[in-house]
Amino acid sequence: MPAIDYAGTTVETNDEGFLVDSSQWTPEVAEAIAQEVGLGELSDLHWKVITFCREDAAKQGTPPGLRRISKLSGVNMKELYQLFPKGPGKLAARVSGLPKPQGCI
Amino acid sequence: MKNLVILGAGTAGTTVANLLRKKLPTDWALKIIDPEPEHLFQPDLIFVPFDMQQPEKTIRPRKGTIGRGVEWIQRQVKLVEPDNKKVILDDDESVPYDILVIATGSHIRPEETEGLMGDEWFKSIFDFYTLEGAVALRDALAKFDGGRIAINTVEMPIKCPVAPLEITFLAESFFTHKGMRDAVELTYVTPLDGAFTKPIASAALGHLLDDRDIKVEAEFNAAAVDTERKVLKSWDEREVPFDLLITIPTHMGASFIEDSGLGDELAFIPTDNHTLVADGHDNIFVLGDATNLPTSKAGSVAHFQAEIVVDNILHLIKGESPKALFDGHANCFIESGYGRAMLIDFNYEQEPLPGTYPLPTVGPFPLLKESKFNHWGKLMFRYVYWHALLPGRPIPVPNQMQMLGKKLIAEGSLA
Question: How far apart are CA B110 and CA A3, in angstroms?
């Protein structure tokens, strides 16, 4: 598993770039991942989603689905697609240092 | 007299009732509430569209599935009032409880997606999670003379997360047998980032879709169906055209859960991963598809959980804290067409691994691999279900996942 240096913090990631241990995440790590995946500078709205995802995952044990994010974070589906293009669920999870949303196989 | 009330007489609720009826102290009454007169064997719903099972064989009268000593109240639940320890029925009658078990499952909600239930519903758009949908799809597939078929999961979580793959593989096999595979374009449309999302399963099975010329449209979150143009549209404005759409609509818990304020945004009930106690309600247990647990919504899960819930109910009656702990164990056959199937066995911590099940080397069921044995196992399971699982007779499969027979693989070593 590759260890990556993000803004001076070394984190373990899996082959797809998701953090193996979400407790290694810091806001600086999020900013560095955002640069790497082409999101650029993170806006307040990005942070609203990231903060929600981290808090929710800590309670639920799994990263929130898109419906959950759009219903509970205060950022609607359209905005989510603008903030995290193509796959908001997967991208928001990666920037938030959470595992990828998965099926059972 | 004290009351133990079970809501829902599907796989989970019926199994709990039949296990409990011999174990509850004599000063407890056991009641189960479900409005439906028949019990549906849901694993057969994937076979009905391909005429591999007759619709009438998938159902049995509910009366015969509920053992003696259990009172069946054939009504709809309107509300649960945890503070008053009461269940309110649709005729406003109330049923008091001391311990409540919620097992009301997961239900498709096609009305959640714009256009799904419009003019084309049951004309060119079908579900297969209801018997009516599966029968309507069977009739449409029999007449289908070629064109584009899209199989779409609207959003996760769904009941039986492998069913969309199974319906796709079975459709591919169905048209090949009819000698018209070349006339059919199959597209598997998923909100996840691929048909397989776990590294070991992807490496072992990822080729199956390519080999069978099934297209995959990944990370597609369905927003609406344009029924005039017959296209499925995503939130990021991608389009998948279809002549026939097999939809796996949004799944939600029972509507009384929303009305009682017990559920999350999809009306699934926040539940302790291990004890199966509802969050914030010590005398309410939740199992089967009705929970928000991070494991599959599947019959095997309901079965393993039933034993845990029964143990914990007996602890609670004795004034003890819940001691039995669920590990997220699931065990699923996956039909892959051509008379073969795969088998997966996993829990909260361990993703599906290759190997053999339940015994090392001799199996007889190979894990994460296609085999005729697995297909026979899936068919044989019908008898196990009606005659052993549902009546609460012992089945020689432990409720905790075992590592015996599984091959450990490091993620880095995957080809």
Answer: 44
**Mutation target vs A (from B193, B217, B370; most A CBs, 10 A cutoff):** B193
Nearest to A50 by CA among A85, A80, A16: A80
Using a CB-CB cut-off of 8 Å, the residues of chain A touching B346 are: 104
Taking the domain A3-36, which CATH number applies? Answer: 3.30.1420
A8 min Cα distance to partner chain B (Å)? 25
CB B275 within 8 A of CB B322: yes
Most A CBs within 10 Å, among B200, B264, B300, to test the A interface: B264
The predicted complex's ipTM stands at 0.84
CA-to-CA distance for A53 and B52, rounded, in angstroms?
A: 43
Residue A29 binned pLDDT confidence (cut-offs 50, 70, 90): very high
Rounded to two decimals, the pTM is 0.94
Q: What are the structural domains, with CATH classification, of chain B?
A: 2-106+253-317 (3.50.50.60), 108-250 (3.50.50.60), 330-413 (no CATH)
3-state SS class at B42: helix
Cα torsion A20, A23, A25, A27 to 10°: value is: 160
CA distance B52 to B116: 27
**pLDDT tens digit string along A30-50?**
999 999 999 999 999 999 999
**DSSP 8-state secondary structure symbol assigned to residue B340:** E
